[in-house]
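Let us work through a complete example step by step.
Step 1: write down the sequence.
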Amino acid sequence: MLPGGTTPASLVHLSCHAVAAPRPTDSELRLAVPPGAGAEAGRILDASAGRGPGTAGPLVVLSACETDLSAGHHDEALTLATALVTGGVADVVGSRWAVRDGPTSVMMAVFHHHLTARGLTPPDALRAAQLWKLDPHHIPPPTLDGPSAPRQPGPICTGCTTGRPSPIRAIPRRAAGSASGGRSTARTPCPVARSRGGRARVRGRHVRSPGERAWEGTVGHFKGFDMAGFWDDSAYALREYVEETPPTPELIASVEEELGGYRLPDSYLALMTAHNGGTPDRDHFPMDEPASWADDHIAITGIRGVGRTRPQSLCGEFGSRFWIDMWEYPDIGVYFADTPSAGHDMLALDYRACGKHGEPTVVHVDQEGDFAITPVAENFEAFVTGLVDESVFDTSEEDRIDALATVRDGSFSPVLSRAFREVADVLPDADRRLRVLAEAIVHDKGFFALHADERSTLMYDYLFWLFTSFNQVDSFDRYLKAPAEQERSYALPDYELMIVFGLVADPYDFSTGGYAPGFVEDWWNSRVSSGRIAGTADGYRMTDAAVTALLDGLPAVADDR
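Step 2: predict the structure and record it as C-alpha cells.
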C-alpha cells in the first residue's frame, strides 16, 4: 500500500508535506524516499488494483497539508484520502487545507489519546479533539497528563474548502518528513476523515454519519464568518435557547429521529457545535418577495439548538414538532427559527424537494395566511450568512412622518366626531386638542400607539371623557368592546370603534391600528381605585375634579411642544 510497507499495522500516522495537484492522480505525500517512489494518489490506486474488497487495512492519519482536497475535480471524489480508502485502509484522517504545525501536533496528541485511552472511533475521537480546542479553558483531558499533556492548543480551523483551493504554493522537492516523525516547517492540516465502511451515497452526494458530520461540520462551513459577533447571549437567550453543551453524535442521531428522520444539514451542525442555539444579533433577512412580516424582509427571534433541555430547542417544549402537532404547521421538515409574531409565522428547513436526507432549502411559513410557504434561501448556511442588522430596514423616520400626517389630518371615527359635537359648549376645539396630544405622542415614540406612559394616560382620560359625553358605561368590559353577540356598529360604540379599529364599510384614518387591552385595563383600575372614575346612576363617569384636572392638563401638552 505504501512504499516500503511490508508489515501489517493497525495505525499509520504520517506527518509530512503533501500537495493537492490540479490533476488528482498527481496529488502526493512528499516523503523521504527516492525519486519516482513517492506516494502519489495514482500510484496508491495502481498498487490497490490486486487487493480484494474485504482486505483488512489500518487507520491512516495524514497529518499533512491538503490530503483530502481535490484541486480540479468536484466534491473531493479523488484525493489522497479517498485513494487510500480505495487501497484498502479502514479509515483515513485527512485535511482540506493548511494551518500552522504546532497547533495541529497538539490536536493530534489529543486525538490519539481519545482514540486509544477512551476507545472512541476515529470520527468521534477527532471531533472530541476539535471540541477540546474550541474550549477557551483548554483543560487537558483528565486521563492525559504528565510532561506530554497539551497546555497551549492554539487556533483551530473553522471552515473547510469543498471546491477549488487557493493557488498551490511550490514546495521544494526535498526530504520533508517521514512516518517516523519528520514534520513540515510551515504548514500542517486541519483534519477531516474518510471511512471505508461508513460511506454511502444518496442522490450523488456523500452521506455522513451523525458523528462524522458533527466533527467535520465544525471545519466545513462558515469560513471567514464572524461567529463571535453573531450571537446575542442575553439572559433570555441563555434561558430559552442556548444548550449548555455542543451536540454529541448520539444526541444528533436521537434528535433527527425524533424530528421525523430528517437529516440536519452539515452547516446546521457546524453552527450548533460552535454555539448550540441562541438569538442572533443580526436577525433580519432580506426578501425578494413579500412575506407576512414585511414587503422586503423577515425577522427572526432565535435559532433552535440541537437538544431537549431548553424550551426553544429543536426537541424542547416548543420545538419543531410542537408547531406541527399542536399548531398544525405543515410537516415539510424542521421548524428551526421562530419570529416576533409568537408563533404566527416560522422559518423551516424544507425537505420536500430533496427528501429527508438531502440538502433542504429555507422557507417562511405564514400561519395567518393559511400556512403560505415563501422561499427564503437556498440552504441554511446561505440563510445564516445573509442575516443583517435591523438597522438595514430601519424605517423609523418614514414611519414617524407618516404617523404625524395621520394624526394631523386623518379623518376621525364617527364616535369621536359625535363626541366633539357633544362637548362643544365646554371645549369648542376638542378635535384640535386631541390632535395636539396625539402629535406629542408621535414625537415621543415615532408612531401613534398608547401604552402606560404619562401622555398615554392623559389620552385614556380624554377619550373616556369624550366617550361618556353621550354613552353610558356600565363596566370596563363593555367600554372596551361591545358583546360578541351584538353586531358591530358606530351606533353602539366602544373603545375599539372609537380609536382602534374602523368598520370595513366605513373606515377612518385617526387610529392606533391596534392596542394592548392590558394597558387600558391598568389605566381603568388606577382611575377607579384613586376615585377619579366613580360609579353613578348613569354608569361610570369621571368626577368633576378629574374633568377639571384633565381640561387644565391639555393646554400644557401644546406648551411642552
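Step 3: interpret the result. The CA atoms of residues 422 and 469 lie 6 Å apart.
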